[in-house]
Amino acid sequence: MSVDIKVRGYHLDIYHHVNNGRYLEFLEEGRWDYFDRHQFIQLFEAQNLAFVVANINISYRRPAYAGEVIRISTRMEKIGNKSAQMVQEVRLLEDGEATTLIADAVVTFCLMDSETQKAVAIEGNARAVLQTMIEDGL
């Protein structure tokens, strides 16, 4: 799954390329889009669960500049007992094709009980849906 974003002037730092912190926002947009498309937010809310990022490990490969269009791709990688991982890539979009790798990240998240504010085991329907995403390569 992917979402495209045009790099704007307000994304830039004093060096005229995208500020490192903005990539976290781009990746977050990619995750929200991914969850929207799979209706995960509704699934989680129905079970009184919230999606919480526990760790992001990001590697910056090449600067992105104003006017460029980037594609953020997101896929589910693995599921543990209380956490799961997604892999995300930010690539330059040229002539409709995602080309040069700009950044990549591994995002570890957990599901939190909205009432207790504690991480819970990934099980039942939530686990089945996430596992299907891995099996389908999504």
TrEMBL record:
GO terms for molecular function: fatty acyl-CoA hydrolase activity. It holds the Pfam family 4HBT_2. It comes from the Bacteria. InterPro entries: 4-hydroxybenzoyl-CoA_TE, HotDog_dom_sf, YbgC/YbaW. The keyword Hydrolase applies. Its EC number is 3.1.2.-. Keywords: Hydrolase. It is an enzyme of class 3 (hydrolase). Belongs to the 4-hydroxybenzoyl-CoA thioesterase family. This is YbgC/FadM family acyl-CoA thioesterase.
